[in-house]
Fold each of these.
Amino acid sequence: MKAETMSDTMAPEKRFDDDPNEKDGLGESLGIVRTLYMDGEAGRAAIECQAEMRMCHSGGVVQGGFVTGWIDAAMARAAMAATNFEMTPMTLEIKVSFFAPAMPGLLVAEAWIERKGRSTIFLEGNLKNAEGAVVAKATSTVRMMPLIDMSSGKMEKRKK
């Protein structure tokens, strides 16, 4: 299911944004505001991001690594939702095309599965500005791996 506007949301199957037991330091650093939706059946997801001046270089343009990170985060949510959150994506490659500068403000990264194999997923995604214009597009190939539990201080396969 696709959100029609930035304010339309669906409750994700799994919360990435506000679980008090799991702080998402990476999401915080990236300026991810919330997950708009995750649809495992359709293999789609979207997140809302807040671009700030601290993320910009010359002329107030958001640095490309943040743009890439936002689309990558949406693609990861789409892949994880499609595996019922039993697997995590490990990026094998990612390609981003930048069409227009991303400026400070609210942005939406959308992602979808283009093709899914047994252990490899091909994803696509984009980043839209507040007006809904696509400012960047990306493709990614990921290998799905079992979730790892680091809570004990060592890497262990996560128990259900």
Amino acid sequence: MSTPATTDLRSRMPNPLPFVPELAVVGEGLHKVIKNGSIPLVTVHLLQLRAGQILGSTYFTIRETGNLRQAGESEERITAVATWRDATCFTDAERVALELVEAILSPNPSGERVPDELFARASALYDDKALWTLIMAIAHIGFFTPAALIAKPIPGMPPGQNYSA
């Protein structure tokens, strides 16, 4: 079975910026926060890859896989994100980040999504600035989820070129 070339793919909607230019300000602010240096960018990309997998977003999954490759991450670590609980290649801080994003994005019919025990483990590994940065990295994915799932930007294309005209 062959797959269509990226150039053959089309988004459902055009680039949002001509319609809602304020979106650029919000996106820029979120990008600035997650790049403030308080947590490694690799951790951000790992948790955003996991979010893309949970959400079923090809766009996020391809984007974050590419970001991790560009950062020099091994194929073992990239592919193990889907099964991170059983993988031995993640640090404790990365594991907590992955667990937090799963807790936020997965329904929990029996109680809190982020129990005190998970928060305690996260706060033991991250100082307040780093924990807020981690929260904003998850918020970043949450903010752009509707666009990724409804407008369907073209996977693998850089921002600004990932929407059909």
Amino acid sequence: MDLEQTFHLLLYRAFHAQRNHLRQNLAPLGLGSGQPKLLAYLATKGPCHQRELAAYYEVDPAAVSRMLEALERNGFVTRQPDQASRRRDLVEITDKGRRAHEQWEARCGELEQVMLSDFTAQERSQFFDYLTRARRNLRDFEEGRK
């Protein structure tokens, strides 16, 4: 079988090509691996608990804790005691974090334009739908629903 005809390898290679291209944009923004997604969530959803971030991205809470420590140390987020539950902190994006998020999103948008340059609007929409459905199917399978 030709490796280029194997769906999982094509998906893997596309993901790694994207990640490798974007990785070079992390350091100039002062960010580390995995941190942009946390900023994206905070910029969109607002303050939240660490566990919410871990659950949304399906990442180990300890890994999220390490990323948040670095983000806080570099001024991208703050943590304040939650008034409703003093045992937990609320994580919030700072102005510096918001600027870094906006710059990251601009670079991601540029890369998406390159990646999808010969796709029609309908193909882009379908591709988005296919990836969303594939992820949902996998999540449902992992949860035992299928």
Amino acid sequence: MTVEVAFLLVLLVVPLFYLIGTVGRVQAGAYAVSAAAREAGRGFVTAEDVGAAAGRAQAAAGLVFASHGFIAGEGTVELGCEGGDSCLTPGSHVVAEATITVPLPLVPDFMARSLPTAITLTAQHVETVDEFRESP
């Protein structure tokens, strides 16, 4: 009976641990991409000029990705402007779209054709430039 219990324990517990680890990593990616888009938008609209805004947004997103356990380059942020001649015109909108690819753990390379080896997550955040801000 001990052998059967040990065998069933391995058959049930190992996949359960894998599932919990995989879902946890994907959830960390979901939180990271959402927060990175939000913080990139906030970093952009609080900059003094357009030249420094993109760098601030990328730095903010990089800090968020790093705090969720992702290395540099795994996540990206794209920025765009809606309305106004300048991105920092009061009342205009800045759109930040963050993307991250979360690799699934323990999927061997030879199974890449039949199973997904990574999940791509995206998030978009629209931040409004303060109406009472001084025009650049």
